[in-house]
Amino acid sequence: NLAERGLVDRESEDSVKLTPFGVRRLLTESIEDYIVSIYRLSRNQEHERVTTSAIAQALGVSAPSVTSMIQRKLAHLGLVEYERHHGVTLTPLGEQVALQILRHHRIVELFLTEQLGLPWDQVHEEAHRLEHAPENVFVV
Fold first, then answer.
1. What is the mean pLDDT of the chain?
2. CB-CB contact of 17 with 31 (8 Å)
3. d(CA 13, CA 98)
4. Of the chain's two ends, which shows fewer C-beta atoms within 10 Å, N or C?
5. In angstroms, rounded to a whole number, what is the distance separating the alpha carbons of residues 100 and 110?
6. Is the pTM for the entire model greater than 0.85?
7. What are 102-139's pLDDT values in tens digits?
8. Computed over its alpha carbons, how large is the radius of gyration of the chain?
């Protein structure tokens, strides 16, 4: 049952919606990286809207690639609101997903340092690789 697994919420007898955890099951690593970058960039400036050029620079991709990803995937999934020439903002769902990804990243970093003894300066890259794994991979 999807509701029992935390993937959907029942809004009524006839309607269900994906939870942020359920949405994450639909996302690729690339989409997750975009969401986290938008979240971080929006927190580092005065206003919430983030330009496509700022996202492109943060991710090391072209501005047209960013626009394409935003229009074709992120907006379609309900993760961002995009206004041409004015930038992008995360929707409440997009923000929840970003926070979930960042939380998972921090937990993985903590695991790598405390349980595996990796030096702190080496854990970020490994945690980034592992943050995209489903959270239930780490359940013991």
1. 81
2. no
3. 29
4. C
5. 15
6. no
7. 888 888 888 888 888 888 888 877 777 776 665 544 44
8. 16
